[in-house]
Amino acid sequence: MKKNIMSLIIWISLLVIPVLISGQNLLIKNGTVLTVTKGTIPKGDILILDGIIKRIGENLEAPEGVRVVDASGRYVIPGIIDSHTHIAITAVNEGSEAVTPEVRIRDVLNAEDTAIYTALSGGVTMIHTMHGSGNPIGGQNIVLKMKWGRPAEEMIVPEAFRTLKFALGENVKQANFYTPVLRYPQSRMGVNAIIRRELLKAKNYMEQWDRYLKVKKSKKSAKILLPPRKNLRMEALADVLRGKMMARCHSYRADETLEFINLSKELGFKIACFEHASEAFKIAKELSAERIGISIFLDNWAYKIEAYEGIAYNAAYCTKKGVLVSINSDSSERIRRLFNDAAKAMKYGGLSEEEALKLITINPAIQLGVERIAGSLEVNKHGDIAIFNEHPLSAYTRCEMTIIEGEVYFDRAQYLKEREEMTKKKPNEEKKKKGEEI
Amino acid sequence: MRVKNHLSVIWFFLVIFFFVINSSARVGPVYAIVNCKIIPVSSSPLEKGIIIIRDGLIESVGSPEEIAIPEDAEVIEAEGLIAYPGLIDAHTNLFIEFPKEEPRQRGRAMGSQEKESGRYPDVLAFKLLKPKKSTIESYRKIGVTTVLVAPKRGIYSGQSVLLNLNGEKPETMVVKNPVALHVNFSTARGLYPATVMGTMAFLRQSFLDAEHYNAHKSLYAKAAKGMKRPEYNPLLEVFIPYALEKKPVIFTCDNQEDIKRALGLIDEFKLNGILSGVNEAWRIAERLKKRKLPLLVSLYFKPPPTSLYVNQGKEMKEKAEKVIYPANAANLHVSGIRFALTSYGLSKADRFLENTRKAIKAGLPKEEALKSLSIYPADFLGVSNTMGSLSPGKIANVILTSGEIFEKETQVKKVFVDGILFKVKKPPEKGKAPVFNISGTWQGTVSWEMGELEATVEFEQEGNDITGTISSDYGEWEISEGYLSGNELTFSCTAMIMGETMEMNFSGKVEEDSIDGTITFTGGSAELRLTRIPKKSF
Amino acid sequence: MIKKTIIFPALLIMVFFCISQETASDLIAIKGATIIPVAGEDIPEGDILIRQGLIEDLGKDINIPLNARVIAAKGLYAYPGMIDSLCYLGLSEIMVLRSTVDHRETGRINPQLKTVEALRPDSVHIPIARANGITAALVAPSGSLITGQSGLIRLVGWTPEEMVIKSPVAMHIEFPSLPRRFGERETEPCEESSKRVEELKKILNDARYYAKRKEVARKNLLFPFPEFDEGLEFLIPVVKGELPAMISVHMEKDIKAAIKFVEEEKIKAIFFGVEQGWRVAEDLKKAGIPVILSSLNNMPPEWEDGYDGIYRNAAVLHKAGVKFAFSSQSSSMAKDLPYHAAKAAAFGLERKEALKGVTINPAEMLGVNHLMGSLERGKIANIVLADGDILELRTNIKHVFIDGKEMDLSTKFTRLLEKFKKRN
Fold first, then answer.
1. A185 upstream amide cis, omega within 30 of 0
2. Which of the residues C175, C180, C181, C182 would you substitute to probe the B interface, choosing the one with the greatest number of B C-beta atoms within 10 Å?
3. pTM
4. CB-based contact (8 Å) between A254 and chain C?
5. What is the tally of structural domains in chain C?
6. Is the dihedral of CA B74, B78, B83, B87 positive or negative?
7. Is residue A9 part of a domain?
8. Sorting pLDDT into bands at 50, 70 and 90, what band is C192?
């Protein structure tokens, strides 16, 4: 009896207590707090202890030793989440073969990519960095926090869903660039066929292992049995079929998107999200019914023919039709102005301020499976915060500070101070070189 | 009469027989090195001592009171000299010559699938050795008597061999063969794996395949009847001792992420791992300390291109090369980590000792540096019972230097390798005054078997010292070690071509407006011809 | 007697009738808008009278003819139509499909190319930019050394000819980037010349002499008349100082060298790009060279520039007194021109100056400020009515007038949206 109570207590406390992280303490005071999910506090404070938001309210007092950030006249929002990038890694696409689910982005992380700093300067605290879109079945993606200066393994977000990159369309067909050798598939028919083939192979592989394990268990067999060859490629696809990994599929045209949904049903795997989906507005009702979200550009279009019918109203329209939409950058430059893109969803489609902000905060968090710890300013979530000098959806705004788990990783004031000191030092250094007196 | 004749014939053959047997074991001279200071490394230094070398081995080491000079010993007067164990360079790619590659044709995948995909675990460095006399001499000149030679190309580049630099024939030089399997985090360009994440998946899969192959083989060995026989795989055969039987695997790590990748594989597959290169090791010293792996630390100081020291401005990059990376060894020592120092990444032998001096200047204690070039590498490579220090019974690799070994002015005077005495040639006179001033811009072509490349070179001359940059379609590279003596120009250059670093050395002649000479690099050479671009005001 | 009393009123009626035949579309009155003329003070609750494509009058309570079509603009803001100082509208449809891209030619020396001759008036990107308040744009060539002649177009027209406002506007030159000299100190002038800069100087010199030889030969029939040389013929207006050169230049060292080049060659110049202009703002001011900034979506060329190097560039240049303008450098993203200006305003540039960077400044720099760039009497009626600040992201554009005609604001975006609204 006692044992049962003990284990029950342990289980409950595990559910209730948030995952312990080694974060910092911080009190943000007097900012306009846009929580995204629970309204706006015009003059609000946020208290972060050990990296977790402990209190949100007004007139909070700082416990002893806690750093205070004055956010008067500023806007405080949840740290922005970019759910489709290729930064902080040293390799993007294993293009030598068409199907490579065994490769893992986590093996090629680069914590010293200056794009991480660029992301911080734009208020981004978390990214989903992915395998490229050159393969029908690519590799395993990963979610990172932009902890500039820390080793790569400390940036990994373990709570996120495991995702596998799939891709359809022109990139995968290698339609827009020259290759010395033609790689199958070169048509959309081939793309679907190869995905089906590999997943059927994976099913076959799973069955072979099941049979082996069954025979092994039943000690009846006198024969010594050789296990099937463990194949990392098949293991990865088996995980997708077992529901341990979800598909994030790059697709542009409405038709190929629908066909991929059919494939997922035929073969039995789950789609977390469609990437880019410029024609999503054409099939908003299907996406809404299937409860599959999209992670898209707001208005980047017409760079290839499959993007020629991508409209700027896509995000707003799909949102209004009940599709979960997030805005991404897919670029180490665009990542620093996701808040500008979100604002355009108000102009093109009439989303409200809060709906627009959700596109870059709670929506991508839900798509990545991290809404329990990020995406909005709520007690018990991680202290991932971005502070802007004007309303984040104004064209005149800029990011002043980016905070992850209570630690300040980007501080514009600090940056300006350092620049000033550097400019003061420079003429002295020039004089030194010339041998003059300082 | 007949019996007598038979006897003489038998005697004749016996004599020949005896001769033949003994002539295969040549009896070398016996040496007694006297009156020198001795640093045995494995025991305390002796101010004045004697070393007796017999039959290629150290017979005894001690003070003159303890040791009597044998009758048959040739006395080597070493007053004023210091005796050290021959230095060990635990990772080089020198002496390896690959068969010449066919020029790559655009649009065709060259070579067999296997070869291109970087799977050469069966390549033995020993089979590819083409030792150059001048390179061997340049090593002995700096006191290195033992080198680990590893093939370089490919993900599994092959198996290394440990050599004593006692001559020119590969067979006599071999101390241990093979030593270890070498793994690089490179890619098979154009074929799978074409990215490092593909390489990681490939490496993991190969260890799994080795397990499976081995399991199949052992099952078949136990009960062949009724079981399909395993298909013979020559590459996996070679691979199994390393993957499953804990023979050493050396991972070459060019940056800290490579180290993490290697550690991951070593842990996952329980390998007997050694890390080499690791010029960023200080950045994850904590983790390395816990793991207690042998480290072969290269004295190559250029930061890897992914490093933040390279991407944050020119000032930072210079600081990295001159201050931060040379302090790698010192920082590891502070963390209590033992390591060997290697010349991996360097293209010239004398850079090895020069860079050791830089590492010492950056804080590595001299005694530790000496151990990192003697007893530690011997330990890591599994030959510490026969090498790495001056103690009786060990192989007679001894160097006699004019002063403390890491001082700049010190010269190596005599070198014993396997008990064979080598005199070191006197270094050339300090260079003559340069005849021409080559400061300015030059244009020309680099031509080699693969084709021609246009290049622009900027030189700056200060006395004999030359610095500058080479620019071409492949990028911009800095010239270092430039020296103009009379009209003879030499310089080195590290080039980044398609993601790979190549050390190149130039040597040639200078005229008023033209420079002509040869560039050598690992695996080949090229001709460089330059003409001066006349100065004009802009 | 009876004749006189009938004829005079009849004449009056006829004249009146004739006047009223002036079609309603030629006479438009915008009433009650907050007018932001850019030249001069803002006018709250003002009116603008458009007649035959021009702004006839604007101000508070102006006289509005009875037959004018009135547009109630209370609560709206009236701005001058924006001008994109460098883009590829009409020259680039789908970036990766070469068949749809016409701003880049092969070869290094192409002064003969005229972008306006390759315009596609039906490009889907033109209505989209127009619907966001851009009414004129400089369409430029891209390429190697001398890339061709740009032209200024209005963002409406059935044919290329109908679209052209002014062509050529400038001769575009890519200034050669100087090789980095090893160990060079920034304060010393470049001693070594780059082959390409020499080449450029030689070409201009050749053009000068080519023109001279033609002149002289025309005066004396006995002198040989030079053969036609396409590469030189079209450079004559440049060397004569009649056609400005738009020089693309980016790094500090190159900008300084380009200033020297312009002074030595005695040509009129505008600089484009100028990402490190903030480092040499004083020099640019002294040389009196105006600057068209490249897209603010570019990354700073060097780490040492700082993460906001490109963003704060305009503010620093303005403070030093350098005239600047913004460009989109795009076709599909030409609609975002105002947000480049706003981004500069977020990093130190006053908002009023940012607005000038997309209105009066480009008009002046491209030599059309007598026609556009501000809301003033006599200028072309390129007017934008918006429900807020046109540099703001959430502002909606309600009306756009080009040459006094109201524009259709439907685009491919709106058409596709309407189509699929019916499905979902």
1. yes
2. C182
3. 0.87
4. no
5. 2
6. negative
7. no
8. very low
